[in-house]
Every structure is written in structure tokens, then in C-alpha cells.
Amino acid sequence: MASLDFRANTRQAQTLSPRFQHAVRLLQLSSMDFAATVRDVLGQNPFLELEDGGEGADAADADSDGDGVDSEADRAAAEASPATMFDDLAMSADPDGMPDDRGDDRDLWQFEGSSPQRPSGEGEVSALDMMAVEMPLNAHLSAQLDLQPLATRERWMARVIVESLDDDGYLRIPMAELCELCELAPPVTLAEVQAALQRVQALDPAGVAACSVADCLRLQLPAIECPQLRALAARIVAEHLPLLAARDVPALSRALGEPAMRVQQVCDRIRRFDPRPGWRFSSTRIAYVVPDVVVKKVRGEWLVQLNPAVIPRVRLNQVYEQLFMRHRSPAHSDMAGQLQEARWTVKNVEQRFSTILDVAEAIVKRQRHFLELGPMAMKPLGLKEIADELGVHESTVSRVTNNKFIATPSGVFELKHFFSRVMLTANGSACSGKAIRGLLKDLIDAEAPQAPLTDAEITRQLAQQGLLVARRTVTKYRQLLRIEPVGRRRRHD
Question: DSSP assignment, residue 211?
């Protein structure tokens, strides 16, 4: 029979407090994600607020402390300001307010709202007027078709082709399917669709509505002015496109029976063509990198500071906090949780940027030669070295350096760019892999175009400088630098 008894077991387990989990979650976010998170918290938590920038308040204080004498021009500008206009409209809508000419206000409101391109001031243009308007490819082509004297049937077929283009500007739909998409009476013939396709292919940009890469390049051949070079380029595009892609100039020279120098000249001209003409009308926006830290040299010393643009000025609303603490009761448990979260957010924001600054300063102190001399002066550096100096865990340094960027006189780099494993030289000294990559790039940049260096030759030149690197490592570094192999770098001039 089983006995019923009680046992007490004691054990240790590592747990993360909610505040620590909140700090870790904020620390590993990028600057843009962090700013979005803070904005969301500000919109949901009444105990948080943004600090005043001071510019508007200072301007208001300056006006209130002034002598109170305004010019006639300032009065006219104030009366015509949008804020005053709203006050006038509100008074005219109030039956108890002063009598006003409603028609004049209505006309003024319509004038203000119907002129978005009105200059912001005398001789000035507003920022909205200076913004570039994005136009998709189909709209760009349709606008050109509207300027041509086409019959309704021809215009309809051309618009069907325009709307069938993909993002690259290619026509991937078979001709038979295009005939069915037109839905005209009498039915569209294949000859009519081909004529409409030629009409669309003649539009800007050159190469649009092509059915293949060769077709796209063929449509751009008229840009070559020399008839002899244009004819040779047409042969290369039509018959030897794989050799062109492989940059095999000797094979092209033998196949075409032309001098290698002439073939190289034509290949260089073809490579200026746009193989994806639709990309220039893509609506994809470029995501620019915003550095978290800025480093610059001041009086011979490298100064590291946080980028003010990425630091949200969040503070605790003291008025709401005091009111809540004065009237606190068990029924307000939800607001108590929001107050606690607000306090954590303020402290974690300060801790996040303090940790980022400490890590950046430690990195700059060890990689100052990189900032002064370039990539070849990069020292080997590990996460543990920074973690031991700051008294934090390696995982904390890893979170700080991931998706965090630093602006230097040499460019903007991710913080983890400054970490590299140790590689020993022939004399036993340490060298970083990034320094070897920088030296490899310099060797390739200095090579002769007619006789580029092979990976084996680069390996031998590195060994002559005391860097013992395997050939496969050189190949891997070259691929990381996105440098083509020796066969594609060789030129025949």
C-alpha cells in the first residue's frame, strides 16, 4: 500500500524578472523598431509622455515677454493664419457669437483647401511641391499611348499589353492568351496583337515589353550609334548570349571572327543596357540606415556620442503619477500595472542607450587604427573581450552589436563589423580576417586588367607578406567581397 507523506525539495533555478525581460526585449531591437515600439507604448500608456522640445515653448515665451508691439504685416499674417481661420469659422457657426459674413468665410475655406500647390510664402515653394511623384510603369506607358493618334481598338490592345507587364517590364503572357484578354468584337487576331506589341515596345523606356533578356537587349540596340558595332552587338545578343554572360571574350572573338579588342568594346557597350527596364519605376522605397552612434575625431581623440535623432525623449507624467498615487485603490490594478510598465520603460530606455554607448566606446578604443588607417588596420576582436571589460555577459554584447550602426569618417558600419576572429601570421603575431580581406581587395584593385591575379597568385603574394592563408580561404574572401573570378575580370584591350 502506497504511503502518503510530504517531501520538501530545494533546488535553484535561474528566472528572469519581468523588468529584465522588458529590458532585453528593448535592447535587441534596431533603432527603427525601437522607435516604433516606444511610439506604441506612448499611445497606450497614459503615464508616459514626450519631453518638450523647447523650441515652440521658447518662441511663445519670447513673444509673451516682448513689448507687445506688432507690425501691421505681422497682424495681417496672424489674421490670415489657419488657426485664426478656424476660430472665425467656429464663431460663425455659433448662434450666440458675433455676426459674421458666412459666405466670405466659406469662400476663404474653399480657397485654402483647393490650392495644395500654393506657395508657402512670397517667392518660396512648399516642401510638398518639391517631392517627386512616383509613377508606376503602366501609368508611364499609358500616358505615352494617350499622346498617339490611335484607333479605339488599337489603343485597347496596347493597354491590355501594358497592364500585362510584370515588375521587370517583361511580357510573360503568351500571344494566344493576350488575344483572349482583349475581348473585342470581332475577335483580335494574332497579327493585331503583334502590331500592338511592337507599338508598346517602341515606348520609353527602351527594352520594355520584351519577352526575354535577349529580346530586351535587342530592343536597346538602336542606342549604339556606330552601324558596324550595332551589327556585331546584334549577332552577340542573338547567337552568343551565354558567352556574353560568362564574359568569355576569347570564345566570342573566335566565334565571330572579330578581333578581341573590338569584341571587348561591343561587350562593354551591351553591358550598359538595362536588362530590367521596369525596375526604375518600382515603388519599393529604400530603407536608409540611421546610425545609433556617431564617432568623430576631436583634438586628436576619438569622441563617441549617441545620435540624438534616435533617442526618444520619454519621461514619466508626474501629474498623472501623483494623482494616481493619491487616489490609489485595489480597484485600479490595471492602472497600477501601466504605471509600473511606464517606470520600466523610462529606466530601460536609459539603460539601453547607456549600454550601447559603453560598448561603442570600448570598440572604438580597440579599433582606433581602423578609423585612422583603414580596413587593413583592423585588429582581431571577440565578444568576450568587450564583455569582460564592461562586466556584462557576451549575449548582452551580441544583442547590442546586432542591428546597431555607428557612423565614422570612413562610412557607416554595423557594430558587429568590428569583430573578427584571430588569424596568425608567419611570425606568430595576430591578424584579423577583415584586415586580410582589405589587403586582398587592394591587390585585386591594383592588378593589371589584361592579366588579373588568380586565387593561387593572391595566396602566394599574401604569403610573401607573412600572411599564411589557404587558397580556399582566399576564394571565400573574394566571394564575400563580391569580386568575380579571374576569367571574368580579364579584359582584352
Answer: S
Distance CA 154, CA 152 (A): 6
Quick count: other Cβ atoms within 10 Å of Cβ 430?
12
Coil, strand or helix: which one is 422? strand
Q: Is residue 257 within 8 Å of 372, Cβ to Cβ?
A: no
pLDDT category at 89 given cuts 50, 70, 90 is: very low
- Top-ranked range on mean pLDDT: pick from 23-37, 100-114, 120-134, 198-212: 198-212
- With a CB cutoff of 8 Å and minimum separation 6, the contacts of 491 are 249, 264, 449, 450
Is residue 457 scored above 70 in pLDDT? yes
DSSP string, 316-375: E-HHHHHHHHHT--GGGHHHHHHHHHHHHHHHHHHHHHHHHHHHHHHHHHHSHHHHHH-G
| Residues 6 or more apart in contact with residue 304 via CB below 8 angstroms | 293, 294, 295, 357, 360, 361, 364
First to last CA, the chain: 97
DSSP state of 292: S
Cα radius of gyration (the chain): 34
Buried b (16+ CB within 10 A) or exposed e, 292-321: bbbbeeeeeebebebbeebbbebebbeebe
pLDDT digits (tens, 9 = 90+) for 135-165: 788 889 999 998 989 888 888 889 999 999 9
Read off the amino acid at residue 489: R
> CB-based contacts of 212: which residues, under 8 Å, 6+ apart?
170
pTM, to two decimals: 0.55
H runs (alpha helix) in 119-183: 127-130, 137-146, 152-163, 175-182
Please, are residues 125 and 119 in contact by the beta-carbon 8 Å criterion?
A: yes
- Condensed to tens digits (0 to 9), the pLDDT of residues 254-287 reads 999 989 889 999 999 999 999 999 888 865 556 6
Q: pLDDT for 36-71, tens place per residue?
A: 888 888 888 888 888 765 333 343 344 444 444 344
Rounded-to-integer distance, Cα 437 and Cα 467, Å: 11
- State yes or no: pLDDT of 435 exceeds 60: yes
Measuring CA to CA, which residue among 227, 218, 193, 220 is closest to residue 204?
A: 220
* φ/ψ (deg, to 5) at 128: -65, -30
Q: Kindly state the helix (H) or strand (E) to which residue 105 belongs, with its residue range.
A: helix 102-113
How far is it, in rounded angstroms, from Cα 56 to Cα 441? Answer: 51
Q: Are 23 and 356 in contact (CB under 8 A)?
A: no
